[in-house]
Each structure stands twice: as structure tokens, then as C-alpha cells.
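Narrative of activities, Objective 1.

The group set out to show that a structural description can be obtained from nothing but a protein's sequence at a throughput compatible with the screening campaign. Below is one input-output pair from the validation batch, recorded exactly as produced.
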Amino acid sequence: MIRTLQKMGLSSNAMYGMGLASVGASMMSWFISRHAESAGIDRADRWGIFVGQWAPTFFAMGIAMRLEEQEEHHDAQHLRAAREHTRTAMPVG
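Output recorded for this entry:
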């Protein structure tokens, strides 16, 4: 799933941004529900909690993507070093 998201152009920073946006959206949904509806604070709390539950998912996905990005970076560095070593190695014989 993480690689599919990366192929779609998303990065760990985008996931972290969506997590932060979710926190803001949670506060806004609570505020709007609290002041625009006559259903009371219980309903506003439910809206805020519902939207706020998205944030940990986005942050967890951001961490998973960051680990994948670091692994890809490490693999690329290792491959470059191996190629450089092969080019500079003296033939035996």
C-alpha cells in the first residue's frame, strides 16, 4: 500500500501534512458543530472526535512512508558505492 501511495506521488511529508490538517479540521468541525447546530456539545464532541481519529492514521502512514524512503535512499547509496568499487577495483591475474 505504501508503494502504491508513493507511485501516486504522495510522500511522507504529505502524510504528515494531512495529519496536521486533520487536527485542524477536527477543531474546526467541533467549533462549527458547536455554534452552527442546536444539537448541543455532545454532537460537536462526536464530530470533533470522528475527524480527529484520522490524524493518527495519517501520521502512522507518514512514518511508514518515511521508513520506505530512507530504505530506498540507503539502497541507492549502497548500489552507487558497489558500482564505484567495481570500477576502481584492479583486475586479478
